[in-house]
Amino acid sequence: RKEVEQDPGPFNVPEGATVAFNCTYSNSASQSFFWYRQDCRKEPKLLMSVYSSGNEDGRFTAQLNRASQYISLLIRDSKLSDSATYLCVVNIGWGKLQFGAGTQVVVTP
Amino acid sequence: GAVVSQHPSWVICKSGTSVKIECRSLDFQATTMFWYRQFPKQSLMLMATSNEGSKATYEQGVEKDKFLINHASLTLSTLTVTSAHPEDSSFYICSTASGDYEQYFGPGTRLTVT
Questions:
Q1: How far, CA to CA in Å, does B75 sit from each of A76, B25, B81, B101, B102?
Q2: Dihedral angle at the C-alpha atoms of B109, A95, B96, B16, nearest 10 degrees?
């Protein structure tokens, strides 16, 4: 079983629509949680941290459910520039990160 | 956030040769750097934690004699892939950590071993 599991997609989303996807993690001692964005052949870039109370950053909303060990990301009013692979990332302590394999989102005109 | 550079950005080498990848923290003193590897359509996998002035800590399954890590200063860590094989072809990325929170990634090095 993978330590961080994500639906690989692709999620094909019309421009302006909403898309949501989750990930699950196995390490119950995980300390902090993030969504990163990775464009093709580039390094990951931090999109947002995920807090237990849920948090929003513009069109992006993240939720964390520690009891069920899953994290979600919702993108509203999708833009063409949102097309990317979204990585669910878990910090298991001492700065060590575990990455999901990513969910591909393709926003179409 | 911190700025991290890597060099080279891509490299092609012949099987059996060694390749050195540099990771520099340009505006941040990094006592700890992390080295990751990413195969196509797979997740980034932590290879090792590089500690300034001491030996690196390798993840299970990563051969320390094959992937030599040196972290001689607070701004530079190097990863040397020794006796490279085609299966070592991958995207290698380093990062530095700000406390136990956000990590800053280098742009990555794409290694192709022929």
A1: 39, 5, 20, 19, 18
A2: -30
DSSP character at residue B59: P
B35/A contact by beta carbon, under 8 A: no
Contact criterion met (CB < 8 Å) for B44 and A44: yes
- Percentage, residues of chain B above pLDDT 90: 69
Please give the residue of chain B at the shortest CA–CA distance from A4. B43
Interface of A with B (CB under 8 A): 2, 4, 8, 31-32, 34, 41-46, 49, 87, 91, 93-102
**Whether pLDDT at B100 is above 60:** no
- pLDDT, tens digit (0-9, with 9 covering 90-100), for A31-41: 899 999 999 88
Find the closest chain A residue to B91 by CA distance: A41
Q: Sorting pLDDT into bands at 50, 70 and 90, what band is B101?
A: low
pLDDT digits (tens, 9 = 90+) for A64-86: 999 999 999 999 999 999 999 99
